[in-house]
Amino acid sequence: MEVTRRGFMKLAAGAAAATAVGFDVTPAQASIRELKIARTTEVRSICPYCAVGCGMIAHVLGSGARNTMARVTHIEGDADSPINAGTLCPKGASAMQLAVSRDRVANPRYRAPGSDRWEELDWDEAMDRIARRVKESRDRTFVERNARGQVVNRTDGIAALGSATTANEDCYLLVKAVRSLGVIYLDHQARI
Ligand code: SF4
Fold it and tell me: Fewer CB within 10 A of the terminal residue: the chain, N end or C end?
């Protein structure tokens, strides 16, 4: 039988607890554990917060059937990850809030120049505005050649900043998209 690193740690923790108090508490521990992650599916992921890239496991409740919404019920470090070996720092350990917090902003918001309030936009309207403004800014500020006549094809009027909650795959697509526009001012919150 192949024992994963995570499975080995579970077995070792149960055995240590039983040895310490002189009787077998493994069934009791298992039933407590069952309550929290019962009927969930384990989904492996990477903590999005910083460049360490700790592995984590999200326990997701929900069948994924039509008209149902899956829900994250628990997040823990991935013991099989060579990066963090099952540990998470306090920030990573609270990453579940990214998915379930009632304060999470779920729609695009826009604050007009000089305004003191945010207005909520629907996604289509936000995407139209962004596309229009990117096109205008790029047309207005595109530089084909530098002062020495060398071809540079860059867009000086647009910058891109990735957020800590942008997944690796999203970051990859973001970089590809903005580089294709000629954007050279490109950074990520985790590096600042
Ligand atoms: S758990 Fe902490 S150290 Fe690990 S990637 Fe997340 S923020 Fe960074």
Answer: N
Domains of the chain: 41-100 (2.20.25.90), 109-191 (no CATH)
DSSP string computed for 6-18: HHHHHHHHHHHHH
Residue to substitute in 50, 83, 97 for testing ligand 1 pocket (most ligand atoms within 8 angstroms of CB): 50
Pairing of strands 183-188, 151-162: parallel
Helix, strand or coil for residue 68? Answer: coil
Indicate whether 12 pLDDT > 90: no
Give 74's strand partners.
Answer: 59
Structure-token match 């492996």, residue found: 44
Reply yes or no on whether the pLDDT at 16 is more than 60: no
How distant, in Å, are the alpha carbons of 16, 69, 108, 138, 179 from that of 134?
59, 34, 16, 6, 13
Question: pLDDT tens digits, residue range 94-149?
Answer: 999 888 898 888 899 999 999 999 999 999 999 999 999 999 999 999 999 999 99
User: How many angstroms is it from 93 CA to the middle of ligand 1?
Assistant: 8
Query: Is the pLDDT at 184 greater than 60, yes or no?
Result: yes
Query: Looking up tokens 């039988």, which residue turns up?
Result: 1
Give the residue, 182 or 33, on which the prediction is more confident.
182
